[in-house]
Specification:
The structure holds 2 protein chains of 2 kinds. By secondary structure, chain A is an all-alpha fold. Chain A is built from 11 helices and no strands. The longest helix of chain A is centred in the middle third of the chain and has 34 residues, at 90-123. The two termini of chain A are 20 Å apart. Chain B has helices at residues 7-20, 22-44, 296-299, 303-324, 326-333, 337-373, 383-411, 414-433, 439-448, 481-505; strands at residues 72-100, 108-109, 116-122, 131-137, 142-146, 150-153, 161-168, 171-177, 184-190, 197-205, 209-215, 218-224, 226-240, 247-251, 267-269, 273-278, 281-284, 293-294, 377-378. Chain B is built from 10 helices and 19 strands. By secondary structure, chain B is α+β, with helices and mostly antiparallel strands. The interface between A and B is large, with 50 and 53 residues.
């Protein structure tokens, strides 16, 4: 496993795109979080902590690209056959990829969230004092970082399953965006709630709520758990497909 | 088809490539299927769940339809008489106020901008029947309105104001006057098929007081009825008015409990005139989130998911050439590189357009059938508008495909190209429509990003004479259909320009 980790870390570290994508996660998340904070500077738009973390909705797309490329890139170039020849235990390879991608996203996401909250604290000082010592704000911040990590793992699982980078991005972003739009058009409140509860994006982002938590369709940590289930499911199915299929 | 080097030849080569790669064909079929299935699911997962007092199904959940077939609100307090043949009614509005009691407390003054009081000529007292009305409003002065969607502004704003409606055949003419001596023409409207005997008289109505609070959790509204009282004097009737007596009546369902004290028939004869008081409105129904009415664009909600599939196919249509090195073969077979890109763009645009058009043409009637079956009321729009929504949706997918192709040419990497285009066009749409963002940032996103093109799907106009929350989440876009589409076309033109220039300058 250590060897596999070392291999995956070296591959991801030396591919030109990785550093750019990680920088992209931080920049896009912070930029849109600040933009939303500025737009809501005098009202806080109901939930100042969530406002300052709006950028996560955009940053997750870059995380998805990073995770998908960690697998899709190898399929695209045929490198995957070399990888499996060197490390025949495929589940170990997948676990190592998941660990490396997860760790990178954890670091980049942590930086993005920290800067977003600090910037939000400055911009929104008129309506609220955002402090990481405050329980709900800390939950929103930590939860947002974990949200990005789980989106990365979900993307990894889908990429292993689909084996084509472009199609995998389409599937991941479709999965994230599909539920909120469908929920917006159904007029049955039961279906509305059901869709919001199983939606990886809506349920997962429930962890960002700091006000009106009782009014949420799903409680914050349970919502993040829903996304966790999606990610675990994708990795499991991806891992199975990896064992059963030819590379 | 002019020789081996002609554009027709390149076009044919690209068409053959697209047609023979299984993944691309599957991607396009998936795009069509997802448009159909999401439309059907959205209709199937919608239900009436509103219930009136004692769990009875709510009355009036299906609104009456106006002369144009559109759903309307038609409830007001009406003091009327029969008018046979041509004639006129003149009255002076001496006061117009509205009150409300939001929580069962004593009524407080609460005049709405579209609180109405004035004179009206209506085919019958059946809700939805044709009418023309000249009125004073709470905040918009004198207006001449007819058949729910027509609205012409007068010049006067104060009480007292003199109003006069004159019927001549199918034509109703409205005049206003500050003093009863000098009259100014407000406008003249035609009510086709108006019967010879109509109901004419005095009316008052006042829409609900709505407070909409927006946050990240979506919009939450508070709404309670208001009750208008309009006082009239110097009433003059000309022509044949056989009744010689006012009859007070509440037209339509006044929607909920009466606001304010002294609720009777809403009609009272005073010493020198008549006072009419009532709630409600005479206006078209406005579509909105959570509403029970169904629009044509709601049936095409799957378009954005089909768009994701199309973006993937279009980006890989170019990037896979780079990945497999086929681009070198393509460019040596047709050394004029611009031609290859132009042919690819033409092929992907045409194929996407036809696929999306076919999907939309199948989806719209099928989903409509499900909605009718479930008893929803439909916002009927002119055929031209429906055609614009359907063809516009197909064109939106086609142009977005070309954008994706161009971005793929510049980036030469499929994953990056797909992500860039999805984040640029699908994400802003999702954030705005699914009320993830408040209205301000949503409006802004739908102006400056390629997602502005989704404005081609808006089928209902914003009615200036109805106060409502015309937000993207309710289906109202900040740009006009063509304007929004032009934004996407602008982005696509720039991307194509960059793609042409890098293709020419770079080594393949």
């Amino acid at each position: 496993m250590r060897e596999a980790l070392h291999v995956e870390w070296t591959k991801l570290r030396t591919v030109a795109g990785t550093a750019w994508l990680l920088a992209g996660v931080v920049l896009l998340t912070v930029a849109l979080g600040v933009a939303a904070s500025v737009a809501c500077a005098d009202t806080g738009c109901g939930d100042p902590a969530k406002t300052s973390l709006t950028g996560i909705a955009f940053g997750q797309a870059v995380v998805a690209v990073l995770a998908v490329l960690a697998v899709g890139g190898e399929y695209g170039t045929g490198m995957i056959r070399v990888t499996f020849a060197a490390l025949p235990r495929r589940s170990t390879v997948l676990a190592a990829k998941a660990a490396v991608v997860g760790a990178l996203v954890l670091v980049a996401g942590g930086a993005a969230v920290l800067v977003s909250v600090l910037a939000g604290r400055g911009v929104l000082s008129g309506v609220a004092v955002l402090s990481l010592g405050d329980g709900p704000v800390l939950r929103a911040a930590v939860g947002s970082v974990l949200y990005l990590v789980l989106v990365g793992l979900l993307s990894l699982g889908v990429a292993v399953l689909v084996r084509d980078a472009a199609a995998a991005i389409g599937v991941v972003l479709g999965l994230l965006y599909l539920f909120p739009v469908v929920a917006a058009v159904v007029s049955d409140p039961d279906w509305f709630k059901r869709l919001q509860r199983i939606s990886p994006m809506t349920a997962g982002l429930a962890v960002q709520a700091t006000t009106n938590v009782e009014g949420l369709p799903i409680s914050p940590w349970a919502g993040l758990g829903v996304l966790g289930l999606w990610a675990a499911g994708a990795l499991l199915v991806g891992g199975l497909a990896l064992r059963l299929r030819d590379a | 088809m002019s020789g081996p080097d002609g554009f027709g030849h390149v076009l044919r080569a690209e068409w053959t490539k697209l047609r023979t790669v299984r993944g691309w064909v599957l991607g396009l079929v998936a795009a069509a299927l997802v448009i159909l299935l999401m439309g059907l699911f959205a209709a199937a997962a919608s239900n009436f769940s509103c219930s009136g007092p004692n769990g009875a199904p709510c009355a009036g959940s299906t609104p009456p339809t106006g002369p144009g077939g559109e759903p309307v609100v038609d409830s007001f307090s009406f003091a009327h008489q029969a008018l046979t043949g041509d004639g006129s009614i003149t009255a002076r509005v001496t006061s117009l106020t509205a009150v409300s009691s939001s929580d069962g407390q004593a009524p407080v003054e609460d005049t709405q901008p579209w609180t109405k009081g004035g004179i009206i000529v209506k085919a019958s007292t059946t809700p939805g029947s044709p009418y023309a009305a000249l009125m004073l409003t709470g905040g918009h002065g004198v207006r001449l309105q007819h058949n729910f969607t027509g609205d012409v502004a007068g010049t006067l704003h104060a009480t007292p104001s003199w109003l006069r409606l004159t019927r001549s055949g199918d034509t109703i003419t409205g005049h206003e006057s500050p003093d009863g001596a000098t009259w100014h023409l407000v406008g003249s409207v035609t009510l086709p098929g108006l019967p010879s005997t109509v109901r004419a008289g005095l009316f008052a109505a006042s829409p609900h007081h709505e407070v909409i609070t927006e946050s990240f959790a979506g919009a939450s509204g508070e709404s309670y009825p208001t009750r208008a009282t309009a006082e009239f004097d110097r009433i003059g009737l000309e022509g044949s008015w056989p009744d010689r007596k006012w009859v007070g009546e509440d037209v339509g369902d006044l929607g909920g409990p009466r606001a304010g004290a002294g609720a009777g028939t809403g009609f009272e004869e005073t010493a020198d005139g008549v006072a009419v008081s009532g709630s409600g409105n005479i206006a078209p129904v406005v579509a909105g989130r959570g509403g029970l009415g169904k629009t044509v664009e709601g049936r095409l909600v799957g378009a954005f998911a089909g768009l994701i599939a199309v973006i993937v196919v279009a980006a890989t249509f170019m990037t896979s050439e780079y990945r497999r090195g086929l681009i070198r073969t393509s460019l040596s077979a047709s050394p004029r590189r611009g031609r290859v890109l132009a042919a690819k763009a033409a092929v992907i645009a045409a194929v996407t357009f036809v696929t999306a058009l076919a999907a939309a043409l199948i989806t719209v009637p099928l989903v409509r059938a499900v909605e009718v079956d479930k008893g929803f009321f439909l916002f009927t729009v002119p055929t031209a508008t429906e055609v614009r929504v359907i063809v516009g949706t197909a064109a939106l997918l086609a142009v977005a495909a070309v954008l994706s192709l161009a971005v793929g040419t510049v980036l030469r990497r499929s994953a990056g190209a797909v992500a860039v285009v999805i984040v640029a066009i699908v994400l802003p749409y999702v954030l705005a429509i699914a009320s993830v963002l408040p209205t301000g940032p949503s409006d802004w996103l739908l102006r400056v990003t390629p997602a502005a093109a989704f404005a081609v799907q808006q089928s209902l106009p914003e009615y200036q004479q109805v106060t409502a929350n015309y937000a993207p989440a309710d289906g109202y876009f900040p740009l006009s259909p063509l304007g929004g589409f032009a934004v996407l076309c602008g982005y696509t033109a720039v991307a194509l320009g960059v793609a042409f220039s890098v293709l020419r300058r770079r080594d393949a």
